[in-house]
């Protein structure tokens, strides 16, 4: 047994040995890392490509690349040194370093002359000696037809195009005879012009075959339909295509189009007492004409013209008379700016109903927007911010308040030019304006000639208050009792109202209306 002193001595000696062993172990470990890092940073050499041989011709268009390199190395084969298109990859044998990579098969249309770029890496180091190898593919015998497509062709003269074996002679046949041929030389595309005569049948089968290296290439066929042979029109015949007889033109600016002999002059005349000339066109080498005539708003809807002309010093064999109608002149519809006559500015309405009254254009729809006066500037600011950001307004959408009586009811100005609508509301100070629009029987906006909705407003701005029936009316004001409800409405979370015009009005629209009214007031004050 050890004494306490001996025990202490032995323990101390053992601890020092362990302490000395730690840096030694770290040095060995770090040394190993450094050795490994140094070896990995060196470039890998000894890449050898044995097949395909330089400038050899492979037995197949499915090419296998073989060779040797460092054991366990990654081998990659590309079309060229850019490394954009990879054709195949593998890992060398971990004992011998041999590798074999079967490349993506080359298409029959690929040129016979090819080149590959072989490279790779082991660890983090690439080969120092990548190999570029040129070789040839075996000739593939093939023919394709690109144009014309099967079915009708536009003309009896056209080009037959496609691809074929490099160096072959391509022959196109049809209608029982050879139509054309082309020797491709080093190319593998062809374009052969062919012509069918007027005597050839409409239904035809094109046959394209070829010859390469003294042997034939299996033909390919394409069924087509030639245009029918049309008898030529008389040398001096005029044809007027538009406007069609008895139709109504889309505009009071009318374009007369048609065909006439090349080199002729076509004239459009009014069919009136003096036969005034409306327009003419010189065709030059063309055979089509387009003559634009602008009729005024004072011209009659019903119009008749006669079109004639001359070529080579003599007139056409025919003239064309054409009756048509111009669109009627539509007077623009202008709505009166609506006016709110009740409530009036400063009025106090007692109860839970408010009746809006006013004037406008008979038959138009009225929309009334009421917003809590205290929130008006905030509403305008939010609308302006949304417009500046070119984004839809983020204002809360209208939510139901008191139960609606008839949500579909519209506020329409009567024949006497007045309108009225009664709604339920809650106590508060409000500012209201009205907007007018012309809607059809389905409640959709009527558009003007420019495609814009026909609207008017905003009206005069009215500030009023609503107090509960039990509330004390401020001194100096005249309380007005609200009449029974007569129209559904929707309100926002802040008790704003949007009445009439259906979905055409939202509180966002109210902000715009108030903004417009406020700008008008400021301009008036400035003056």
Largest sheet at a glance?
A: 8 strands, mixed
The helical percent reads 10-25%
Oligomer: single chain
* Count of DSSP-assigned helices: 3
Descriptive notes:
This protein is mainly β and 527 residues long. It has five domains: 1-40; 48-136, Immunoglobulins (Immunoglobulin-like, Sandwich); 151-225, Immunoglobulin-like, CATH 2.60.40; 239-325, Immunoglobulins (Immunoglobulin-like, Sandwich); 339-526, Single Sheet (S-adenosyl-L-methionine-dependent methyltransferases), CATH 2.20.130.20. The protein has helices spanning 4-40, 376-388, 507-526; strands spanning 48-51, 64-68, 74-78, 86-91, 98-102, 113-122, 125-126, 131-136, 151-152, 157-163, 169-174, 177-183, 189-195, 203-212, 215-225, 239-242, 253-259, 265-270, 277-282, 288-294, 302-311, 314-315, 320-325, 339-342, 347-350, 353-359, 365-372, 418-424, 428-437, 455-456, 462-467, 479-481, 490-491, 497-499. The strands form eight sheets. Strands 25, 27, 29, 30, 31, 32, 33 and 34 form an eight-stranded mixed β-sheet that branches. Strands 3, 4, 6, 7 and 8 form a five-stranded antiparallel β-sheet that branches. β21 and β22 form a beta hairpin. The longest helix is centred in the N-terminal third of the chain and has 37 residues, at 4-40. The termini are far apart. Mean pLDDT is 79; it is low at 1-17, 24-41, 392-408 and 478-511.
Could you outline the blueprint of secondary structure elements for this entry?
Blueprint: H1 4-40, E1 48-51, E2 64-68, E3 74-78, E4 86-91, E5 98-102, E6 113-122, E7 125-126, E8 131-136, E9 151-152, E10 157-163, E11 169-174, E12 177-183, E13 189-195, E14 203-212, E15 215-225, E16 239-242, E17 253-259, E18 265-270, E19 277-282, E20 288-294, E21 302-311, E22 314-315, E23 320-325, E24 339-342, E25 347-350, E26 353-359, E27 365-372, H2 376-388, E28 418-424, E29 428-437, E30 455-456, E31 462-467, E32 479-481, E33 490-491, E34 497-499, H3 507-526
Parallel strand pairs: 9-15, 25-31, 25-32
Antiparallel strand pairs: 1-2, 2-5, 3-4, 3-6, 6-7, 6-8, 10-13, 11-12, 11-14, 14-15, 16-17, 17-20, 18-19, 18-21, 21-22, 21-23, 24-26, 26-28, 27-29, 27-34, 29-30, 29-31, 33-34
Helix pairs in contact: 2-3
């Amino acid at each position: 047994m050890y004494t306490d002193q001996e025990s202490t001595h032995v323990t101390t000696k053992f601890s020092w040995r362990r302490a000395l062993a730690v840096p030694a172990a770290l040095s060995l470990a770090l040394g190993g890392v450094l050795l490994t890092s140094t070896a990995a940073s060196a470039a890998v050499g000894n890449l050898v490509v044995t097949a395909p041989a330089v400038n050899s011709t492979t037995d197949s268009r499915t090419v296998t690349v073989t060779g040797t390199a460092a054991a366990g190395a990654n081998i990659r084969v590309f079309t060229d040194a850019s490394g954009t298109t990879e054709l195949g990859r593998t890992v060398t044998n971990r004992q011998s370093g041999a590798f074999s990579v079967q490349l993506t098969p080359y298409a029959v249309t690929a040129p016979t002359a090819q080149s590959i770029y072989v490279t790779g890496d082991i660890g983090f180091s690439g080969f120092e000696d990548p190999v570029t190898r040129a070789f040839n593919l075996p000739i593939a015998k093939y023919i394709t037809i690109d144009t014309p497509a099967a079915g009708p062709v536009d003309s009896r003269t056209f080009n037959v195009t496609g691809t074929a074996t490099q160096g072959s002679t391509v022959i196109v046949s049809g209608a029982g005879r050879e139509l054309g041929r082309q020797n491709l030389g080093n190319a593998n595309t062809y374009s052969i012009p062919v012509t069918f005569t007027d005597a050839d049948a409409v239904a035809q089968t094109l046959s394209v075959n070829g010859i390469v290296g003294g042997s034939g290439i299996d033909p390919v066929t394409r069924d087509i339909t030639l245009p029918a042979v049309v008898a030529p029109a008389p040398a001096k015949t005029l044809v007027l295509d538009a406007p069609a007889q008895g139709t109504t033109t889309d505009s009071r600016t009318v374009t007369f189009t048609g065909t006439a002999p090349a080199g002729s002059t076509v004239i459009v005349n009014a069919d009136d007492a003096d036969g005034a000339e409306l327009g003419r066109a010189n065709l030059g080498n063309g055979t089509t004409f387009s003559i634009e005539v602008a009729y005024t708003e004072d011209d009659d809807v019903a119009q008749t013209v006669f079109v004639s002309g001359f070529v080579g010093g003599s007139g056409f064999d025919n003239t064309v008379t054409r009756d048509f109608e111009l669109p009627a002149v539509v007077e623009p519809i202008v709505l009166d700016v609506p006016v709110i006559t009740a409530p009036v500015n400063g009025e106090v309405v007692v109860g839970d109903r408010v009746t809006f009254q006013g004037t406008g254009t008979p038959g138009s729809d009225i929309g009334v927007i009421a917003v809590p006066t205290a929130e008006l500037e905030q509403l305008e600011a939010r609308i302006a911010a949304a417009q500046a950001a070119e984004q839809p307004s983020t204002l809360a959408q209208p939510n139901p308040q008191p139960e609606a009586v008839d949500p579909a009811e519209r506020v329409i100005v009567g024949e006497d030019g007045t309108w009225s609508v009664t709604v339920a509301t809650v106590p508060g100070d409000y500012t209201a304006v009205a907007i007018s629009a012309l809607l059809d029987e389905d409640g959709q906006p009527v558009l003007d000639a420019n495609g814009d909705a026909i609207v008017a407003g905003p009206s005069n701005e009215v500030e009023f208050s609503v107090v509960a029936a039990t509330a004390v009316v401020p001194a100096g004001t005249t309380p007005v009792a609200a009449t029974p409800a007569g129209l559904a409405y929707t309100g926002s979370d802040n008790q704003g109202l949007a009445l009439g015009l259906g979905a055409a009005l939202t509180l966002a629209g109210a902000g715009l209306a108030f903004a417009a009214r406020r700008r008008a007031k400021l301009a008036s004050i400035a003056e």
